[in-house]
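Researcher: I'm preparing a figure for a lab meeting and need a structural model of a single chain. I don't have an experimental structure, so a prediction will have to do for now. The sequence is pasted below. Please return the structure as tokens so I can convert it later.
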Amino acid sequence: MSKLSPKQLDALDRIQQKPALQQLFFQKINGLKWFDELNKRGFFYAAHNPRPQQSDKEGFFIVPAWPILTYLEKIAPELQYTSNKQYTQEVLGIIRKVTKQAIEDGYSNYRTWWYFSKTLNNIPIDLLAKSDVELMHYWLSDPFDRMLIGVELGRKLLPRLLAADTDHSRSIALGLTELLTSIRWNRKKGTRKEDQEPVLPVDTYHAAEILKPIAKLIGETLEKYGVELFCARLKEVLKVTGRDKYSTLWRRAIEDHEQNRRLDNVLDIFIDALRDSLLGYVDRRAAAAIPLVEGMLNSEFELFRRIAIHTVRVHHIPLNGLISKVLRLENFSSNYQHETFHFLRDCFQHFDDNIRQRALDLIEKAGKQAEAGEGRSELHGAYERLEWLSAIKGLGFPVVDGLYEKYLGLVGQPPDHPDFSSYSEVGWVSEASPYTAEQLLSRDFDDLVNILTSFKEEGGWKAPTRRGLAQELRKALALKPEYFAKHLQELVSVDFDYLQELLAGYGDLWKEKKYDNWDELLAFCHSVLHSPGFWEEKPEPKQFGFRATNSWVVGQIADLIKAGTISDENAFDPRLLPAAKSLLEYILDRQQGDPFETSNDAITTAINSARGRAIEALINYALRCCRLVDEPAGKWAHEEVWASELQPMFDKEIERSKTGNYEFVALFGQYIPNLRYLNKEWTLMQLPVIFDKTNRKKWICAMEGYGYNNSIYKDVYTVLRDESHFKSALDIEELDHHTKEKIIQNILVAYFQGDERIDDHVGILRWLLDRRNKEELHQIIWFVWTLRSAEGTPPTAKILALWKSISDLANPEIDDGRALLSKLSMWSVFITEFDAQVMELLKKVAPFIEKEHNAYILIEELKKFVDKHPQEVADIFLAIMGGCAPTYQQEDVEFLLNKLFQYGLPVRDKVNAIVDAYVERGIEFPASIRAKYA
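Model: Understood. Here is the structure written out token by token.
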């Protein structure tokens, strides 16, 4: 590689002296000739990888870019050439060092990981290591952004790994596929409280874009392991969401079909991925795939059985032995109608005579079932038979055609869509308007007002509606805000539909920074609220679609005040705060709350009600008032504003909460951090009022609100714990899983901070453990495991003590106990040294690690200790073999066995016993490793 000239070296000296020049400099240079000097001068040192920085806005961070990575991206294409292997290895070493240093220091920079992802796409696959997947795992755990990294790895690196199709590339490809399909579960907004939503490292659009083109290749290349991975992912989603039953209502066909309701969600993605990967596996090794397909035909999940039927249809020749497994009466039902119908249509002519007769017998039995039951007749049975016979008529079998004509004569007409249990023809129906936005803007304002006040709906299909006209009014405002300036008061008395859309439009303009005339807007809101009859109920004749009410308008006014105060960078002038306060007081004195049902989530109800939106506006208004005085004047001014201006408004809400006002009760729990900022003493004093057990509905609202609060304050925690609110909450059926999980997490954080003890037999942690509630114990294990790479990882001693306590509760003689021990094996990631306690814990969980598919985690951790503790690792491996023979991540198992054999006589008997146990189970690869050391 050519040396740098004196001028180029001088340029490097300058950018070292003036780092501000580096970004521009690295944008200009190119080529590997710079690399050695840059590396020698330390530009790639891990310490230079910038950390996220707290921004001026509380709760927000800035993630700086690392200038040198601009250069790294430009030289990346040169790294794929064999002649540059030395540089490729050095760059790979930099990527590993920087990431490992970030892991050790407990921070992340998604911009850096994104550049590293792009660089990996140019590095020869044989230079990548299986351990590099752990680096990618850390990148995809970035708290600020995972999308860029996931898309880069999924679109480019994963297809390259699959195309290479070597043992080495397949191993890395499987690990990367696992990462890209890993699931986090989030509470689903705006739905029932038990609903959970699966979230992938990238959004569903990009996840589908990644997996759709390569799912079949994953099955062909990774074979059983790839298909089983998608099986596990789909099974997890179906178990949590409960979407398996009646899947034909939303996924009418397993193949891509216009009748499928494309939900663009994780469930659809995994159905497609499992379908295509299974087809790929059968394409490559049909004989090996038969047990897996047969297992899916017998699955408890309808979707698995439908995918299996589809697979046998597509590959009926190599999977001929499974045809009889498909021809079962339960598959001749609406739940499997599409797949079984097309299986018959495509395969019937290839059946032998016995199988054809069996299919006809099943059609006859399905018809008899349709006839059974109250209100049923022979006609129902005839129609059922006719649907199935539609699949196989006209194929040259007279018996079939004769039966079809027989039942057609009884029914009278052929079925329209016999291959679907339900069929939809969908067209888009929207609210129509008599005028477009442009037409409204072309008129004088007086004409516009006349149009709004005089328009009457005539009814009828696709006829113009008031909502449609209101929506065009909002579009007109967006197109030309100045048209409405100085005319707002003329619109005070128009219908609520128009007011609601107009106010929402002003909110849009403010967010887009296209409007700032808050004097006119707040005066308009005042006039609307004080207009005659505004607060009266207005019964109207039945009309097309929804109609806005005064509550809708009130909610929009509250949202406007919130939008104008929530951010100091985009807030209306402080001189207008009294006008905003007057509006809020007027609203809160008059607006009724919505009904709260304990079966619904309290926060969802609160933030969607007009009163709840007004309370959120009040809190944000108060925070704005205090922030304005904090910086220039300090604590005394804050306290003065609180006492004189704000506390009376909040005291009113507290008083109202004693007889209802559930919006405030729920939002109090969620906004505890903000309320403590406003006034800590007042907030703590209100806890007994808000968390009032004498009013069950009120108390449930308060606890559900607390479940949305991500901050833990010792003073608040202590009150709720000591007054048994946490204990009561864990036993209440009406409270959702989200709230209960948050309480468990609170208790664990308190334990790690020293405020709870396991040996305190009257303490809440001991009480929680002694309940032996399966879901709660699993939640404890899962939450602690999520802290493995977090900043401030809990002390190992505390984790081990908790591990011991939970382990003592687990009975290995029953399924629940074995599952609990398997989950506990995940905590092996926290082990830093082997001692008697650690050995006892590991030996107890080892036989059961595969119960919850956690073998790969423990095996991965054992690799870290095999050099220092070969005897202990061999003992644990032997304990594992007492319950299972792990093969997943085979390269990790091979690594351990090779290492143990290398230690010779001290561990030879144990490692031989391990290999013998594998051989007894019919797994041969460990024997080939032993042969090398014979």
